[in-house]
Fold each of these.
Amino acid sequence: MSKLSLFDFKNVFKYYKGEEHQIKAVEQLFESLPKEVLSEYADWIRTYRKQTNDIKQRWPISKEDMASIMKCAVSTLSDDLMDDYAECCRKYKLDSTNQAYFLGQVGHESAGLRYPIEWHDGSNYEYRHDLGNVNPGDGIKYAGTGFIQVTGRYWHTEFSRDIGDPKVIYEGKKYTSNKYPWSISGYWWKRNSMISFCKTLPPIDAVGATVNGKYLPNGYADRRAYSKRAFDVLGLPYPGDSEASRSISSI
């Protein structure tokens, strides 16, 4: 009788889908295994259940840490969403400091990752040439997208080229907000020189003003709260809310 190779044995489980005949086969295997192999403390059980270093390093921060920053349930953070965050940080070279600033602004703009797309339908952006909206329907198609609400045909076109995915421009906000909510936000962050700016450790209100376009930025208290949690979770010293607060804290 020929013996299964390790490769063939692994393939037996690779195609497991919980079908009736497969369940029966697993039950037969269970009945044939020695008791010591079925012990809770068997080496293979502990190895199988243990989170590997590769998995730990898959994302820059854990789902639990992201949920803590965003005040959301861990169950709302899909693997695909976290994978896009990881790719965003990798592609746009967001170090821990930039991630803390970035997460603070994203938290406010998206209401804790609840809204990867703008509430308004975008009709108020029709024919906004400063956003690249030159065709009928551009305002709606390219309304605020991603967790930092990137708006307009121009930004979608530029991001489409950068990411190498033409669907971004062909399908617009619904596609991009679902597939690249982090990455399009990271692209905006990079293109607006936020990476170099944040490396100077500016106060949170200054960063919020750059994102929002006014000082004090809309929702500045909320931006501060998200940012404080992000800096705390990432183990970084909080840079202060404003220049005034930083001056007071240094006395």
Amino acid sequence: MTLLFDLPTRPSVPILGEATAFPVNRIFCVGRNYAAHAAEMGFAATKDAPFYFTKTPSAICHSGATIPYPPGTANCHYEMELVVAIGAPAFRIAVADALPVVLGYACGLDMTRRDLQNAARDQGRPWDLGKDFEHAAVIAPITRAEAFGAVAAQRITLTQNDAVKQDAVLSDMIFNVAELIADLSKFYHLQPGDLLYTGTPAGVGPIAAGDTLVGTIEGLSPVELTIGPAE
């Protein structure tokens, strides 16, 4: 059977220092995984269970890009995050066995149309319009897990036009990487190519045309993004 038309090539993410790239299969994101961020959003942090939302692979945006201010929103926010790149299958995996399925880590930005997210939340509706849109999953090159080492108290920061807006450590996460992988694998057959955005610290805020965002995590390539005017 002949296809009616061709779809765009599946996005990929460079692997630092290699000629190979990581093809993106799915994008999972964790909500409210830092207590201080949960508080600034008006929620108490709990460790009952993590919760997730997704972005389509077409939301991938490479570090260093200039993007138009996102359509349909007057209040788009940055959210700086550690991104986990899955490199092996995992289904119903134990916490103790979860870290070996990690291929590497990257700096990422979970861009959020906050006004649309909040409107959906207040009406008990899904967050899709607020979270899943073009250029909404910004990512820097992936560093191999063995080169990065254990996720511990590495500093995670974001600057907006050189002013520090987010500043925390990865050990502030409510659920660590192994716990997130083990929990998510109860609901999905995780596969090589899956990405997991692990949540953002406090200090999220709005972007404007002309802004430059720089997110860093000690030991990883920084993620950079410039905001252009709306289309």
